[in-house]
Design goal:
Helices cover 18% and strands 27% of the residues. It is of the alpha/beta class and 256 residues long. The strands form 2 sheets. It has a 7-stranded mixed sheet with strand order 4-1-2-3-5-6-7. Strand 10 and strand 11 (184-190) form a beta hairpin. Bound molecules: zinc ion.
Length: 256
C-alpha cells in the first residue's frame, strides 16, 4: 500500500476469503435447508500498524472437489494474501493477525501472513491445540508465527481504537473486536453472531460449545448495537452482499 495511514485514523476494509455451504440450522436453529455463507476477513489499517481480523479459508481448498472440497468454495485469488495484494498491501507487512477463533474458515490463511503475531484468547489456543474438534485443522493455524495469548479484553494499540473482547459460546475462546474509526464504531463479530437475525431475534444456532455462553455474547453485542455500533455479522450472505470488497468501509459505519 503506498498510502501511509497517518492522518485518517483507523481505516477498515472487508473481504470474503471463500464460502462454505452448510445446513441453515448451524446458524439459526430449526431453520430448514442449506445456505452458502462467506468467510469474512478484515484489514484494520491503524497508524501504528496493520492488523487482520480472521484469514478465511486456506488456498489448499482451491480446486479441491473431494471431502471438504464438496462444501468449500475457494476460487483462485480469493485467499487473504491475494485480497491484500489487490488492495496494494504486501502481506508481509501485516504485523497482527487477530483470530476470532481457530476454525478452518477463520484461520486458514494465517500461513500467508508470515511476519504476523497471532492474537487469540488463551482458552481458544488451548482448545484448538487439544485436537478434540474436527473444525480445527492445526495445519492451518500452527504455522510457525508467534502466538500471543490474551485473556479477556485487549487494547491492541493502547489508544482504545482496536479492542479485542471475549465473546465465547461458539467456541470456548471466541473473541470479537471493536474498531473505532472517525466515522463510528464497528464490531467485527465473527461467529458469535452469524446473521443479522441472530441478534434481531436472539436466535441461537443449533449447536455450539456452549449455547448459554452464545446467548450472553449476543446480549453483549445487542448493547453495543443499541449504543450505535455497526455490527458486522459473521456469516450473513444477505448482509455481506451489501458490503463492498476491498474498499474503505467509511460510509458503512452507521448503525442499523
Ligand atoms: Zn467457527
Amino acid at each position: 500500500m503506498s498510502r501511509q495511514n497517518t492522518e485518517d485514523g483507523v481505516l477498515l476494509f472487508a473481504f470474503t476469503c471463500g464460502h462454505i455451504t452448510l445446513p441453515m440450522g448451524f446458524f439459526l436453529a430449526g431453520e430448514p435447508g442449506k445456505v452458502k455463507v462467506p468467510a469474512c476477513c478484515y484489514l484494520i489499517d491503524h497508524p501504528k500498524g496493520l492488523a487482520i481480523f480472521d484469514t478465511g479459508f486456506s488456498p489448499r481448498f482451491t480446486g479441491m472437489t473431494e471431502g471438504l472440497g464438496k462444501i468449500v468454495d475457494m476460487p483462485d485469488g480469493h485467499n487473504i494474501a491475494d485480497r491484500l495484494r489487490e488492495l496494494g498491501v504486501d502481506p508481509e507487512r501485516i504485523e497482527w493477525v487477530i483470530n476470532s477463533h481457530l476454525h478452518l474458515d477463520h484461520a486458514g490463511g494465517n500461513a500467508l501472513l508470515p511476519n504476523a503475531t497471532i492474537l487469540v484468547q488463551q482458552g481458544e489456543y488451548e482448545f484448538g491445540m487439544g485436537g478434540e474438534d474436527g473444525a480445527y485443522h492445526t495445519v492451518d493455524f500452527d504455522t510457525g508465527q508467534p502466538f500471543r495469548q490474551v485473556s479477556g479484553e485487549h487494547d491492541l494499540f493502547g489508544d482504545g481504537t482496536v479492542v479485542l473482547f471475549p465473546t465465547a459460546g461458539h467456541t470456548p475462546g471466541h473473541q470479537s473486536v471493536r474498531v473505532t474509526t472517525s466515522d463510528g464504531q464497528a464490531v467485527l463479530a465473527g461467529d458469535c453472531c452469524n446473521m443479522r437475525r441472530s441478534l434481531d431475534d436472539m436466535h441461537l444456532p443449533d449447536h455450539a460449545w456452549s449455547l448459554d455462553a452464545c446467548r450472553g455474547s449476543l446480549e453483549t453485542l445487542a448493547v453495543l448495537r443499541q449504543k450505535g455500533a455497526r455490527i458486522f455479522y459473521g456469516h450473513d450472505p444477505e448482509f455481506w452482499a451489501g458490503i463492498p470488497q476491498s474498499k474503505s468501509l467509511k460510509i458503512y459505519m452507521v448503525a442499523d
